[in-house]
Amino acid sequence: MSAHNAGIYANGYAWCDTFVDWCMMKAYGADRAKRLIHGWSAYTPTSAQYYKNNGEWRTKPQKGDQIFFKDSSGGICHTGLVYAVDSKYVYTVEGNTSFQSGVVANGGAVAKKSYRLDYKYIAGYGRPDYTIVKEVNKVAETVYNWTLACPEWSRPYVQKALDHGYIKGNEKGELQLTDTKIWCLVVMLRIAGIMQ
């Protein structure tokens, strides 16, 4: 098994960290993703240590961070990605969790969640050095604002995500989906058993 496969396809392990690796790989390609997160790991303490070793560990979140959670003993036990932050909450997307509130470290689903910024089980945040990809990613992804504008193969998934409330349009009803977001919806719907 290659080093790449050891992180992305870590069969037999809890997959919250592997989900983050996969999202980064889908967004930036394997080589750049591996540089951003300093290697593949299915073990959350190892991934957190990668950030610490590279001076990228933070206590205050921002969009694009990898969030790490701890258990009651203080050990890092779960992870996800930060997609938004406001004055009170950090908003995440996590793999191998559930829609229940609080940290669910082995829930078997992909879910969007939120936590108060002072939530006692947040261990910290890894902040990838996105300057690595800024110059390379000058070509923006296509944005699909309507279901019929999405690639034909993806329309049933987008419609099902709308029906279940996983996504909604902005004040104009525009979906603002990209290929990466559509693939994340596909994974979420398949894991939840809603679509195959």
Distance between the termini: 27 Å
Based on DSSP secondary structure assignment, what is the total number of beta strands? 6
Estimate the global geometry from the Cα principal axes: globular
Proportion of strand residues: 15-25%
Q: Give the averaged pLDDT, no decimals.
A: 86
Radius of gyration: 17 Å
Provide the spatial order of strands within the biggest beta sheet: 1-6-2-3-4-5
Count of discrete alpha- or pi-helical segments spanning 4 or more residues: 7
Give the total of domains. 2
Main sheet properties: 6 strands, antiparallel
The helicity comes to 25-40%
Question: What is the ordering of alpha helices and beta strands?
Answer: HHHHEEEEEEHHH
SS class: alpha+beta
Q: Your description of this structure?
A:
It is a single chain. The chain has helices at residues 3-8, 16-28, 30-37, 44-53, 131-134, 155-163, 179-191, and strands spanning 57-58, 66-70, 76-85, 89-97, 109-116, 122-126. The protein is an alpha+beta fold. The protein folds into 2 domains: 3-131; 140-191, no CATH class. Strands 1-6-2-3-4-5 form a 6-stranded antiparallel β-sheet. Helix 6 packs across helix 7 (179-191). Residues 1-9 have low confidence and may be disordered.
